[in-house]
Each structure stands twice: as structure tokens, then as C-alpha cells.
Write a structure and sequence with these properties.
Length: 157
């Protein structure tokens, strides 16, 4: 345990009163040859000497979420729960005729570009060569609309 001299305590009080940081005070006291201690030792000694706190602590403020934020969180949790309930088994191979059949049946694509896609638009691709377009209808649980999800992953899961 390091012994604090009266001179070191006085210098600590003086530097602390000037608003110096604990690390600067520790460095200065060491350079002046008064005492060699850490920043934490300075903080502890200042506390034991009952030096006034540097700044008043502000009480923790509870951030109130808006109704919209709460609703968004609930919707996210619902979508996540639904996604966990639906497990799709992808087909291992799809021949050319099946691909053409998928692209032509049951739904008229909106032919969106990749730049037009949003989080809730179907990403089922159309076209064999670039530039590709995408279905664009509203998604179900994932990247595809109901029709394309059923076609790609099978309706019976």
C-alpha cells in the first residue's frame, strides 16, 4: 500500500480543483516525484478525501417507445414466429420445362428490376439472360409470394 504524504494530498486537492482528469493528476504527481499511483488510485483518494464530484449524475431516463415503434416490434416478432413455423423443403433439381411452367402459370409478374425490389416484394426471377426482372408481388413468409413459394418449395412443406 502506498503512503500518501501531506504534500501529495495537497497537490491532489489543488489539481483536482483545477478540473484536471485523474490520469493527468496521476502523471503529474509521478513526474513531480510526490507519489507514483494509477488513475484509479487518484479517483479512490479523491473520494476518501471527500472532494466534490466533478459533475452531477443525471438520473437514468426511461425512453418511451412510441406506439408505432411498439407496433413495428410486435409485427417483427409475429413474422419471425410465423417463419419459424413454416419449414420448406426445396426441390433438388428443376428441369427447363418445369422452370418455364413456373414462370407462366397462376400469376402475372410485375417485372420489377432489382432496383425496384423492397423487403416485401417477391424475388422470383424472370428471364434467362440479363437483365432479369422479378415477380414483384407481395411476399408471404420469405422471399417469394404465395404462388412462387408453393411452386418452389412444395405446398405440403
Amino acid at each position: 500500500m502506498t503512503e500518501w504524504s501531506d504534500e501529495a494530498r495537497e497537490r491532489l486537492t489543488e489539481l483536482y480543483g483545477e478540473g484536471r482528469s485523474a490520469s493527468v493528476i496521476a502523471d503529474l504527481l509521478g513526474r513531480e516525484g510526490l507519489i507514483s499511483v494509477s488513475r484509479n488510485a487518484i479517483i479512490g483518494k479523491a473520494h476518501r478525501l471527500s472532494l466534490p464530484p466533478r459533475r452531477e449524475r443525471k438520473p437514468a431516463v426511461m425512453v418511451r417507445k412510441t406506439r408505432e415503434e411498439k407496433q413495428q416490434r410486435q409485427n417483427f416478432l409475429r413474422r419471425q414466429k410465423r417463419a419459424e413455423q413454416h419449414t420448406f423443403k426445396p426441390k433438388t433439381h428443376m428441369d427447363h420445362d418445369t422452370r418455364l411452367k413456373l414462370r407462366c402459370e397462376a400469376i402475372e409478374p410485375k417485372h420489377l428490376t432489382i432496383y425496384d425490389l423492397t423487403d416485401d416484394t417477391c424475388r422470383f426471377p424472370y428471364g434467362d439472360d440479363p437483365p432479369f426482372t422479378y415477380c414483384g408481388h407481395r411476399t408471404a413468409n420469405g422471399s417469394y409470394c404465395l404462388v412462387h413459394a408453393a411452386r418452389c418449395f412444395g405446398s405440403n412443406g
